[in-house]
């Protein structure tokens, strides 16, 4: 009876802690400022090249003619334009590869700040390319902007996952996805003819990139570094305590400090885990596979193909060519609203149902879209069904697959493994992005409207894998998430044995310390009493 009463008291205390969790001012400002200068720019640069495409190609042709005395041929112009668009992904891959040593040496916050050097440099190059008469400046700016995006899409989720309490870690992590959508929408709005979507104004679209970067540089220095980075990698308990106090909005953070001290004790003599070491670590093998699958499906699920077809489908529905840019804003608005909705419900519904449900709904709507596009010339109302399917696919993507992969990467791994894990996730992300840009024109040419069945199959495969493998991670510590994967990683038996013999003599923090040590070594250790 006494044990049962103690258990009930502990449960009550945990519930009280969860109720007390709130969004402090520093936490809100850090997440919004970090995302505005990082993931916002990634989304913005995805859409910003669409509106001025005609004018940029004309600029390429005029520059070529001025230099060589004749107009550029169509194939060369197409190659230059394709290079301008796709080289962004190459820069992103470079950024994802170099992010690990940068976040280790400079920290998460300082990495975000230093990354603005790439953004401002790219903004200057691209906005001045017309004035300088050099299309090479525009292409170089795109690749530098890609480096910025590659770094930010790893450093930002890392920073957000480490400054947030586990009770709101998912909601805060979704800020990355929300600002990607806001960035896409902003690029669409600024690209309208009334604003910067004109031949004389298109360089301003690229010059605007510097604004979020400068805002981030002005605000972020006044906010703390990641407390987990300070405690576990810099071993600076005083600064970590101050950071926790700022982000949590309370003076007593002893509970939060103790939560990570076990990991800290183990990692004082632990170096940053390399990619090869992480891949060899048996205790996180299925976590790595799951990150690769979710990140691969994130890019290969066909959302880029939807953007390719949007204008044609709107035209088939009877919308005039002049009106299409304004109607296209509806896609950006739906994307943003769906991402915000996901951020509001992720801590109630969890990561698993949103991610699996999102991919599942995409399978359904891709299938319906294939039918409607194939038969739209025979039934007059089918183009409107196609428009609905496009909006539904975008919404389905944003409620789960659009942001949760970044959240999961931050939740699956401990401090020493997290940079290597984000490097793997970023590499898969950008390689898949480049592959879609390279292969989709051939898939579309060969399969026509049936190309969406390829993406439906990828979404179905991703949903099936996640249904059988992915555990729920909301409100769970690294230790609890590792236990959920332990059976698949074939470490559960050893861990149970260790807990059986040593459970009564070790605190829960010490047990987590033992398990964390075993994860670093790629195996579990049996307790010897």
Task: Write structural notes for this entry.
It is a single chain. The chain has 28 helices and no strands. 77% of the residues lie in helices and 0% in strands. Helix 7 runs antiparallel to helix 9. The model is unreliable at 1-19 and 493-529 (pLDDT under 50). With 529 residues, the chain is mostly helical. The chain folds into three domains: 23-223, MFS general substrate transporter like domains (Growth Hormone, Chain: A, Up-down Bundle); 231-269, no CATH class; 272-492, MFS general substrate transporter like domains (Growth Hormone, Chain: A), CATH 1.20.1250.
Distance between the termini: 29 Å
What is the subunit organization of this protein?
single chain
Which residues form runs of ≥5 with pLDDT under 50? 1-19, 493-529
Kindly estimate the percentage of residues that lie in beta strands according to DSSP: under 5%
Keywords: Membrane, Transmembrane, Transmembrane helix, Transport
Domain Major facilitator superfamily (MFS) profile: 31-474
Membrane topology: Multi-pass membrane protein
Protein name: GTR9 protein
Q: What's this model, at a glance?
A:
It is found in: Membrane. With 529 residues, this protein is mostly helical. Helix content is 77%, strand content 0%.
What is this structure's SSE topology?
Elements: H1 2-20, H2 25-36, H3 39-47, H4 53-68, H5 74-106, H6 108-114, H7 116-127, H8 129-132, H9 135-163, H10 169-190, H11 202-207, H12 210-219, H13 227-232, H14 237-248, H15 254-267, H16 275-280, H17 285-300, H18 303-316, H19 324-327, H20 329-349, H21 351-375, H22 382-399, H23 404-412, H24 418-447, H25 451-469, H26 478-486, H27 492-502, H28 508-521
Helix pairs in contact: 2-10, 3-9, 3-10, 5-6, 5-9, 5-24, 6-9, 7-9, 7-12, 9-10, 9-23, 9-24, 10-20, 15-28, 17-23, 17-24, 17-25, 18-22, 20-21, 20-22, 21-22, 21-25, 23-24
């Amino acid at each position: 009876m006494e044990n049962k009463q103690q258990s009930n008291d502990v449960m009550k205390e945990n519930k009280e802690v969860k109720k007390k969790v709130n969004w402090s001012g520093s936490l809100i400002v850090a997440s919004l400022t970090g995302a505005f200068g990082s993931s916002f720019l990634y989304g913005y640069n995805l859409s910003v090249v669409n509106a001025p495409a005609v004018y940029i190609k004309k600029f390429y042709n005029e520059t070529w003619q001025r230099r060589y005395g004749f107009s550029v041929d169509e194939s060369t112009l197409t190659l230059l334009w394709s290079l301008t668009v796709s080289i962004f992904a190459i820069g992103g891959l470079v950024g994802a590869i170099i992010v690990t040593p940068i976040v280790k040496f400079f920290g998460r916050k300082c990495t975000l700040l230093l990354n603005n050097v790439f953004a401002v440099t790219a903004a200057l190059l691209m906005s001045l390319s017309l004035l300088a008469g050099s299309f090479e400046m525009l292409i170089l700016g795109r690749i530098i902007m890609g480096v910025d995006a590659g770094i930010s899409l790893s450093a930002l989720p890392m920073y957000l996952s480490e400054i947030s309490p586990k009770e709101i870690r998912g909601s805060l992590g979704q800020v990355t996805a929300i600002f990607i959508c806001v960035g896409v929408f902003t690029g669409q709005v600024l690209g309208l003819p009334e604003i910067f979507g004109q031949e004389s104004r298109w360089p301003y679209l690229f010059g605007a990139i510097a604004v979020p970067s400068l805002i981030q540089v002005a605000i972020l220095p006044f906010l703390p570094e990641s407390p987990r980075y300070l405690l576990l990698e810099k071993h600076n308990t005083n600064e970590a305590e101050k950071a926790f106090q700022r982000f949590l909005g309370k003076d007593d953070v002893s509970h939060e400090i103790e939560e990570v001290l076990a990991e800290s004790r183990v990692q004082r003599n632990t170096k940053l885990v390399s990619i090869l070491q992480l891949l060899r670590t048996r205790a996180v093998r299925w976590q790595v596979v799951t990150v690769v699958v979710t990140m691969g499906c994130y890019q290969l699920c066909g959302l880029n193909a939807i953007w390719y077809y949007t204008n044609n489908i709107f035209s088939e529905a009877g919308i005039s060519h002049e009106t299409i840019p304004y109607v296209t804003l509806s896609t950006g608005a739906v994307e943003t609203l769906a991402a915000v909705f996901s951020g509001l419900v992720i801590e109630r519904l969890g990561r698993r149902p949103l991610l699996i449900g999102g991919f599942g709904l995409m399978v359904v709507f891709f299938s319906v879209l294939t039918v409607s596009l194939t038969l739209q010339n025979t039934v007059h109302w089918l183009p409107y069904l196609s428009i609905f399917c496009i909006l539904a696919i975008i919404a389905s993507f944003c409620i789960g697959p659009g942001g949760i992969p970044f959240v999961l990467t931050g939740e699956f791994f401990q401090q020493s493994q997290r940079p290597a894990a984000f490097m793997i996730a970023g590499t898969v992300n950008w390689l898949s992005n480049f592959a879609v840009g390279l292969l989709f024109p051939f898939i579309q040419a060969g399969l026509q409207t049936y190309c969406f069945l390829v993406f439906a199959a990828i979404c179905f495969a991703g949903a099936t894998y996640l249904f059988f493998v992915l555990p729920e991670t909301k409100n769970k510590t690294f230790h609890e998430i590792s236990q959920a994967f332990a059976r698949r990683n074939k470490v559960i038996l050893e861990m149970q044995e260790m807990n059986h013999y040593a459970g009564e003599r070790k605190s829960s923090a010490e047990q987590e310390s033992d398990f964390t040590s075993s994860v670093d070594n790629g195996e579990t250790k049996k307790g010897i009493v």
